[in-house]
Amino acid sequence: MQSLETLLTDSHTISSVIDEVIARRAANGYLSHHVGIPFGAIEGIFVPLARPIWQFAIQFNLPRLGRLGIMGTIDVDAETGKPIPLATEVICKIQDRADVIVQFYTQTATA
Predict the structure, then answer these.
(1) Residue-range definition of the domain harbouring residue 69
(2) Residue 78 exposure: Cα atoms within 13 Å on the Cβ side
(3) Cβ atoms within 10 A of the Cβ of 70, count?
(4) Which residues contact 8 (CB under 8 A, 6 or more apart)?
(5) Which of 2, 33, 54, 102 sits CB 3.0–4.6 Å from 76 for a disulfide?
(6) Which residues are within 8 A (CB) of 51 and not within 5 positions of it... i.e. 6 or more apart?
(7) Long-range pairs, 106-109, Cβ under 8 A, ≥24
(8) Is residue 50 part of a domain?
(9) Do residues 95 and 58 lie in contact, with contact meaning Cβ atoms separated by under 8 Å?
(10) What does DSSP say about strands 66-77 and 39-47: parallel, antiparallel, or unpaired?
(11) Which ranges of the chain have pLDDT less than 70?
């Protein structure tokens, strides 16, 4: 696998790309504020587009149930460090699916 330095094009220098940890922190802040506290950014990958991004999987976690699944992805602008907002429809879809997952895993068995 190539290093980040090798992947960057001439138009993107190392100094213009934020670190993955900083991008993840920004993504987590966005997710907590706009989607919900049980959602977190994991597994970042640098995508060297014309406008480079860090892309993270959105993981759904609950304290008593643990990791419940990957619910989508979130992108962070790799130059500014700002999360790219998720569409309202995407947020609603993530929240609706999370509700269904919780209902499924917390239902009581009936005889």
Answers:
(1) 17-106
(2) 23
(3) 12
(4) 14, 17, 48, 52
(5) 54
(6) 77, 79
(7) 106/65
(8) yes
(9) no
(10) unpaired
(11) 1-15, 108-111
